[in-house]
Amino acid sequence: MTPETLYLSVDGGGTGCRARLEQADGTILGRGLAGPAATRFGIDASWGAIETAYCNAYAEAGMDPRGQRKVHAGIGVAGLSRAGALEALEAKPHPFTSVAFASDGVIACLGAHNGGDGGIVIVGTGSCGIARVKGHDIKVGGYGFPISDEGSGAYLGLRAIRLAMLAHDGRAAGTALLNEILMHFNRDPREVVAWMDTATATDYATFAPAVVRHADEGDTAARRIMQDGAAKIDGICRALRDRGAPRLTLIGGLGSVLESWLAPDLRKKLSPPLGDALDGAAILAGRRPLDMQRS
């Protein structure tokens, strides 16, 4: 009897890497975790995290990666668009019958729409719109903070700090949010400037929860920032719709928060995700979408 073909899905992100080994019907055999796998950490480090994650998934399944079972792998990696990254990863030796690589955004999109056409807008520390329409990948935004990533956590934080500095100068009305931010820096612009010199998008995004909290409490500055951020996400959503995405989903830590600030007509067009990035990676590997298997 021929052993059943298995599918390995990997989601390699900037904060961690997840892997899952499953059967063709979606039955999960093992899961694995590892550290960051984004290509900005270097190809060797990225592949090392991927390898650790899938070896952990094999171990949980009680299997040896070097065994004789047919395993098709789908691997999503953050930063795959960096020059030479795809070619370098494809050159790495592996134990799989086949392996397919894509960006972490593409596998998230595949999972959200169960392999069908559709778009996602990722709203977290950064932001990006991704869609797959008739076999073509579409990207809107997501070019990196501060030149892009509109409506993201980093964007909200940057806007809040700018307004706080205006309030410090007397050029904008002070509010509870802006006061909280100024107090964070001991009301000393020199501390803000020193912090800014080394601050990353993640650092700016740490102020986003305060913006959301104060907006819920009616703070005028916070509400203005949220409205501006929502307008940017609205633009990304409509751009994906205009380019043919028949289904649209918001994902990411701020996705559900920003959704309530979007225009009513757009909110009606949003759909919940059908699956996650690991489901998308399994589809990338060649596993048929599960609803097709049940039909």
Strand content: 15-25%
Rg from Cα: 21 Å
The CATH architecture of the largest domain: 2-Layer Sandwich
The N- to C-terminal Cα distance equals 26 Å
Overall shape: it is globular
| Derived structural class | alpha/beta
Helix content: 40-55%
CATH homology superfamily name of the largest domain:
ATPase, nucleotide binding domain
Q: Can you identify the CATH class of the largest domain?
A: Alpha Beta
- Give the total of domains: 2
Specify the oligomeric state.
single chain
Distinct helical segment count = 13
Question: How would you concisely characterize the structure shown here?
Answer:
With 295 residues, this protein is α/β, with parallel strands linked by helices.
